[in-house]
Write a structure and sequence with these properties.
Blueprint lengths: L3 H6 L1 H10 L6 H37 L5 H33 L19 E6 L12 H7 L3 E2 H7 L6 E2 L2 H20 L3 E3 L4 E3 H7 L18 E3 L4 H5 L6 E3 L5 E10 L18 E11 L4 H18 L4 E5 L11 E9 L4 E10 L3 H6 L2 E4 L2 E4 L1 E9 H12 L6 E2 L13 E2 L4
Parallel strand pairs: 4-8, 7-13
Antiparallel strand pairs: 1-10, 2-3, 5-6, 8-9, 9-15, 10-11, 11-12, 12-15, 13-14, 16-17
The chain binds one RNA strand of 88 nucleotides through α3 and α4.
RNA sequence: GGAGGGGUGGCCGAGUGGUUGAAGGCGCACGCUUGGAAAGCGUGUUUACAGCAAUGUGACGAGGGUUCGAAUCCCUCUCCCUCCUCCA
């Protein structure tokens, strides 16, 4: 959520910047509603001041046993006027809030201009494509041959987009998750949390999934008003909602494994093969609660952690600085990490590392006290990492001519020392 | 699911219709005291909105109602605790 005071001071800037991010919200209307609301507040505050004073006098009169009837009658009328104005203010405020909740964040100055994915800027590339002398097969075929994925049974149980990992595939998936978590907690100082997978409406609004993106989420029965999390970002960022964090404790670094659930409405038929786009997948998420003056440094550090994972896996990847038009709703800046999948002949997004500055913090009321003043903290997060496309990249890069799959070295301790998965197993 | 109890400031805790934004305590900050510290003493210490400011208004889990006036009375919801029931 943007600061209404800033919008009020510089409406043109916000109109231009939010338009670049495909916002449909009319900033003019926002400014007008805000002015209306404030004008009525001033009006009603004056009436309330009058009433408070009169009430005090009435109390004194009654205590002294004197007649206060005329003042009571007069105040009854003032009370009615106050109720009327309060109602109008509430309605305007609601309308205003609804609009503001739909306005995207404003991008940082280092974010490239642009509307399309082609306008994203490649910041750097690491590694190089594998070289080999045989025709590699796609991960779906490879995985089914090796009996490590079962897409048909997943579809039977739940539908397409719900894969089953089986046997050594299940173990490999678990190895990835555990190795990710161990890096975060043992090497980089994150505290691990295991959050709820169902969250309430307030939490979904706090991180910016609601109200705008309701159709992207699985929702439970209306009576419960609970939503399946699309990412651990939601429960973990809301961990400190409504709290005031000690500035000395920042950045607070939390990480979490969770299953993630996404309806992927509107992307039917896109990347449907195998593990490329799923309704349920596994991800380890990193979340930072940062000092407002340090969040940009922290953002670079965070993307570094995600990159380190890919480097340790020996996977060729690139880092994109997303342009304004491609940036997620809540982010002020976002790096996407894309891993090279040679069989797909494509770059696959495996991580998004975002700085939301105070956008989520204002919605979720996550604050910190700086020089005696309460200020919104900055929130950041990054995938570290989402497993499915990493698994695709491993399949694409680590398969051998005989149809076996070599286990990346860092994962072998988590596989009981196993170094290769063979078709006969 | 049934019965009961409770949500007040950073924390504990008083307060059942009228200068109570809130006693008292703890904690914290600053000052005095000290060679230094502790103790002691003094002062200060919630937050949002409007305003250049003085100041005004709102907020005692949330929302609604009664009243000239609500932390205090009524209704709905929510969360926590205890007991019973049920269950991995």
């Amino acid at each position: 959520m943007l600061d209404i005071r800033l919008i009020r001071e510089n409406p043109d800037f916000f109109a231009t910047e939010t338009a670049k991010r495909n916002s449909a919200v009319d900033i003019n209307q926002v400014v007008q509603l805000d002015a209306q609301r404030r004008q009525k507040v001033v009006e009603v505050d004056a009436l309330k001041a009058q009433r408070n004073e009169a009430s005090k006098k009435i109390g004194q009169l009654k205590k002294a046993g004197e007649d206060a009837e005329s003042a009571v009658l007069e105040m009854r009328q003032v009370g009615e006027k106050i109720a009327e104005l309060d109602g109008e203010i509430r309605q305007i405020a609601q309308e205003l809030e609804e609009l503001i909740l739909h306005i995207p964040n404003v991008a940082h100055e280092s974010v490239p201009e642009g509307q399309n994915p082609e306008d994203n800027v490649v910041e750097r590339t690491w590694g190089a494509p594998v070289e080999r002398d045989f025709e590699a097969i796609d991960h779906k075929t490879l995985g089914e041959n090796l009996n490590i994925f079962d897409f048909e049974r997943g579809a039977k149980i739940s539908g397409s987009g719900f894969p089953v990992y089986r046997g050594l595939g299940a173990r490999l998936e678990r190895a990835l998750i555990q190795w990710f978590l161990d890096c975060h907690t043992q090497k980089w100082g994150f505290e691990e949390v295991i959050p709820p997978y169902l969250v309430n409406r307030k939490s979904m609004t706090g991180t910016g999934q609601l109200p705008k993106f309701a159709e992207d989420m699985y929702a439970c029965d209306k009576d419960d008003d609970l939503f399946l999390i699309p990412t651990a970002e939601v429960p973990v960022t809301n961990f400190f909602a409504d709290e005031i964090l000690d500035a000395k404790s920042l950045p607070q670094k939390l990480c979490a494994y969770s299953a993630c659930f996404r309806r992927e409405a509107g992307s039917y038929g896109k990347d449907t093969r195998g593990l490329l786009r799923l309704h349920q997948f596994n991800k380890v998420e990193m979340v930072y609660f940062s000092h407002p003056e340090k969040s940009w440094e922290d953002h670079e550090e965070l993307v570094g952690f995600a990159e380190q994972l890919l480097q340790d896996l020996g996977l060729h990847y690139r880092v994109l600085n997303l342009c304004k038009g491609d940036l997620g709703f809540s982010a002020a800046k976002c790096y996407d990490l894309e891993v090279w999948a040679p069989v797909e002949n494509n770059w696959l997004e495996v991580s998004s590392v975002s700085n939301f500055v105070d956008f989520q913090a204002r919605r979720a009321r996550i604050r910190t006290r700086i020089d005696g003043k309460n200020t919104f903290a900055h929130t950041l997060n990054g995938s570290g990492l989402a497993t499915p496309r990493v698994m695709v990249a491993i399949c694409d890069n680590y398969q051998q001519a005989d149809g076996s799959l070599v286990i990346p070295e860092v994962l072998r301790p988590y596989m009981g020392g196993l170094d290769v998965i063979r078709p006969d197993k």
